[in-house]
Structures
1.
Amino acid sequence: MQIQRVQLQQHGDERGMLVALEKDRNVPFEIRRVYYLFATKNRVHRGQHAHRHLNQLAVTVRGSVTFLLDDGSGPVEVVLDDPSQGLLLGSMVWREMYDFSDDCVLMVLADQLYDPADYITNYDEFLREVNNPMLPARVSHTPPTADAEPLGLRRAAPSVELDVQSSTPSLALSPHRTSDRRPVALATEECEKRGLGDVAACQSR
C-alpha cells in the first residue's frame, strides 16, 4: 500500500515548537499545492475519492481526524492526531476522512495542481482500476526519507497500536475490512438505489 507515516523533526524550547516541511528532506516530492480543511461540521465525511497520479502528505496541524484508506485489498482506519507526524498518501489509494475534532485543522501538501481528471470518485470504478493489471503502472512518490516508515497495514483482525518512538505518541490503526465498514460514498449510492430516503439510517444497517 502506498501509505507511510513520517515522523517530522520538531524544533523548540520553552517558547514553543516549530516543524518545517521541506522538499527532499521530509517531503519526498515537489510541493506544488497546499490546502487545509478546518471548521468541518460534525458527522461530515470528506474525501471519498482516489487519485490516479497525485501524491500527498497530510498533517493535522491541530486536533484529530480518522482516515479510511484502501489500496484495493480492503480498508483500514488510521487516526492522525499529532502535528509532528505526517501521513504520506501515494497514488491509487481511496481515502475518506471523518470524526474530525471540533478544532481540527488538516493540512495537505500535494505534488500536482488541482486536476479533476485525476480523481476517481466512484468506489467500484476505483476497485476496477486498482485491481486491473493491464492498466499502465501508477506514478508514486520517490523513495521516502530516512524518517519515513511503512505503516505496516495488513490483513489483521484485532486493532493494532503502531509504536512510532518511545518519546512520541503513536498512530492508532484499527483495520476494518469492507464487510465491516464500507466507504460511505458507496453506501450512499446503495441506499439511494434501494429507495431509502433516510440515508443516514440506511448506512447504519
2.
Amino acid sequence: MEKINCQPDVNTCNSLINCYGKNGDANEAHMRFKEMQETGLNSDVMTYSTLIECISKTSKVSFLNIVTYNILLDCLPKCAKTTEVLEFYVKLKQQRLTPDSITYVVLEQSESRNLKHNPIIGWE
C-alpha cells in the first residue's frame, strides 16, 4: 500500500492482523501490530480482541513472556472474554513461565469480576 502512497488505517491493519491470526501465524500478526504502533495508528478494541483470539489459537508464539501474559490476562475480562483467563493461565504454566505478584493480582481482579475458575486447577 505504501508503494502507491496509500497509508493503511486501523481497519486495514485489523484486517491484516485478523488474516494472519486465522492463518495461525501469531508472530506475523504481532509484527503487523508493532508496525501499526510505530506508524502512530491507535489500536482499538477490535485490534486487541483479534490479537487475543489469534494468540489463544496457537502455541507457536515467540513473543510471549510473563509481562505479555499479565497484560493479556488483564485485557481478557475487559474484552468480555473472562472464560479465557484460566486457559491463558494454564498456557503460561505450560510454557514454564513463573507467575509473579502482578499475575496473581490480575487473577484476583478477574475473580472479583465474577469469574468462576476451576477449583481443581485453581491458580496454583
3.
Amino acid sequence: MEERFAHYYVIHFTVSILLSEFIIDQFLPVLINHINMKENILNDKNNLQFQIVEGDDIAYLQYKYHNNSIALINIVVPKVFRRRGIASLLAAYAFDFAKLNSKPVLVYCPFAAHYVQNHPELSKQLDKEFHK
C-alpha cells in the first residue's frame, strides 16, 4: 500500500515539474513582453489614439472626449501584432489613463466591452448615465 502512495507522489511531482517548465517556457516570455510593451504605449494626443508602434506597424485604440468622459471608440491591431494580447494591453492602458485622469469611460468598442466583461472591477469606471 505504501509503495502505491510513493509511486503516486513521484508521478505527481514529475507532472508538477513538467507543468511548471511548460508554464515558464510558454507564458513567461509573453508576460515579459507585456511588461515591455506597456511601457511603450504612446498617447498620440493629435490623433486621439493610444498606440503601440513596431517599425512601420501601429496598433491603436481610438478614443474621443465627450463632456467629462473618455469614449473608447475602436481598437485596430495589424496582423503582425495578433495573438500577443496587444488589444488587451491597449484596453488596460485606456482604463488606467481614465482612472488617472478621473474620467468616466464610455465604451463603444466591442473589444473594450468584452474586456470589461472579463475584468468586472473596471465596471465602476464606466459612465453610469451611458451604461445603464
4.
Amino acid sequence: MPAQSLNPAARTVRIRKFSVSALCAAGAAAVALSVAPSPAHAAAPAPRSVAASAQVSAAGVFAQADAIAAQALKAEKAAKVAKAEKAAKAEKADKAAKAKKAASYPDNLDGWIREALAIMKDEGIPGSYEGLHRNIMRESGGDPEAANDWDINAQNGTPSKGLLQVIQPTFDAYHVEGTPKELTDPVANITAAANYAADRYGSIDNVDSAY
C-alpha cells in the first residue's frame, strides 16, 4: 500500500501531541523527584520527635529545680523555727536569772538554804528545808568553812569541806549550773550535795548520817 503523505496541518497536530506527551512525562518525573526524600533528608529525624524530646528534657530540669527550691524553703523555715525557739529559751533563762537576782536572801544559814531550795526547784532536785538544815547541822554545824582533815577522804588528799562536807570530785561531778564553782560557797555546796544525794538516795531528806 503506497505511503500516504500527511499534509502540513496534520503533521503539525501530530508534533503537538508528541510534545504534550513528553511534557507530561517530564512533569511527572519532576513531581516524583520532589516528593521522594533525599538520603540526607530521610536520615534526619522528624521535627516533631525532636520537639517532643526537648519538651521532656525541659520538664525534667524544671522538676529538679522545683525540688531543690522546695528543699531550700523547708530548710529556711526550719532554721527560722530553731532560731525562734533558741530566742525563746534565752529569754526564759534571762527572766529566770533576773527573778533570782531580784530575790533577796540574807547572808546567813537560813538565807543560804532558801536560796538553794529555789535553785533546786528550778533544776528539779528534790529536798526540803528540814532535810537540808538537819544534815547541815550534823555535818558542819552551819559553818561554810568547816573542813574535815582527819577521815579517809582527807588522807586521800580530798578533804570534805563546806556546809554539807562535800569532797572536790563530788562537787565537780554534781555542781549545779548557775552557782559559783567554789567548793565552800554555801549555796553551791548545798545544791551540789543535794544533787548528789538525789542521785544516790532519792533525796537529801533520806540522808540521816554520813553519806
